[in-house]
Design goal:
single chain, mainly alpha, Alpha-lytic protease prodomain-like, Alpha-Beta Plaits, 2 domains, three-stranded mixed sheet, 67% helix, 9% strand
């Protein structure tokens, strides 16, 4: 008797999206670790507080990538009894954890800067190697930020978009470190811890951007302009009016419900067919929409009055 094995179920769009996001995060994590090692090691050798601080920031970048990967593994799980709308918001929860880690990183960097201000003697060695390390890592950060922002936009990923902002801030931080090293070379050693404070402020700003984006999802902020949905729904021939449009969810997985007015003489079968046309048109126009609930209503003076008053 030959035993057959059922083929694996095909991957959903959400699973494919999550896999692409994880792949991007793994590549960026490896780059962040390499950048962190270079900056922290050379900063320790030369005594540069700002370079070490920038290295710490890159370590937290890599750690945040690990959290992002774990979050996406959970977010990619299909809907179940306990989570009928799926697990997409775990991507948002992961970004909140990243924001908290950024706050810790900002505190560590600011503490190092304060210690450098209070030390009676703070010797910094600035040489060609310092500039080679910082300019090289700056170039990597700029490249990573551009790549991550592009992929985040394409995949509508909160984690990639937030991390791209963070990486861009790191690039500005690296630039400030280079400027600080130049001032140290010119005989202003306090410029180094001052630049560390700039690092801390930049990290705090990144944390704010992450929390701001996460709040948009967790507070069910509208994801698609209602007017755009109305135009799309009313492009269907039998739809006389569309109202009460609501959207929520993550950037990559949007849930939508709306009301449409139809000819009262339509049969239930024909009205249902129109609803299906509206759903198909919306999903085609807005690929991020994963679920559409269409409320069918007869086009009567009473229904129009209720729609105008917003009582539905």
């Amino acid at each position: 008797m030959v035993q057959t094995v059922d083929p694996a179920p095909p991957k959903t769009d959400a699973a494919i999206r999550a896999r692409h996001i994880r792949r991007v995060l793994v590549v960026i994590m490896l780059l962040n670790l390499a950048v962190a090692a270079a900056k922290f090691f050379y900063g320790s050798v030369t005594g540069s507080v700002s370079m070490r601080a920038d290295g710490i920031a890159s370590v937290f970048d890599a750690a945040s990538n690990v959290i992002g990967i774990a979050g996406m593994l959970i977010a990619a799980r299909p809907a179940d009894t306990d989570h009928p709308y799926g697990h997409a918001k775990f991507e948002t929860y992961a970004s909140v954890v990243i924001g908290m880690m950024l706050l810790i990183a900002a505190w560590n960097v600011a503490s190092d800067a304060y210690a450098a201000f209070t030390e009676p003697v703070h010797t910094i060695e600035v040489n060609a190697g310092s500039f080679i390390v910082m300019i090289g890592t700056l170039a990597i950060n700029l490249g990573v930020s551009f790549y991550e922002r592009k992929r985040g936009h394409a995949l509508k990923s909160e984690i990639l978009s937030a991390d791209a902002l963070h990486t861009a801030a790191d690039a500005l931080v690296s630039l400030s470190v280079i400027i600080g090293l130049i001032f140290v070379l010119l005989g202003f050693p306090l410029a180094d811890p001052i630049c560390s404070l700039v690092v801390a402020v930049a990290i705090l700003h990144s944390a704010w951007e992450v929390f701001k984006q996460a709040n948009a999802t967790l507070s069910d902020e509208a994801r698609i302009p209602a007017a755009a949905i109305v135009d799309c729904a009313q492009s269907i021939q039998d739809v006389r009016q569309c109202h009460q449009v609501r959207t929520r969810g993550t950037e990559g997985e949007v849930y939508l419900d709306l009301h449409i007015l139809l000819d009262p003489t339509l049969s239930i079968k024909d009205a249902h067919a129109v609803g299906n046309q509206v759903e198909t048109a919306i999903k085609k126009a807005f690929p991020q929409v994963v679920d559409v609930t269409v409320h069918l209503e007869p086009d009567t003076p009473e229904e129009r009055a209720e729609a105008a008053s917003g009582d539905h």
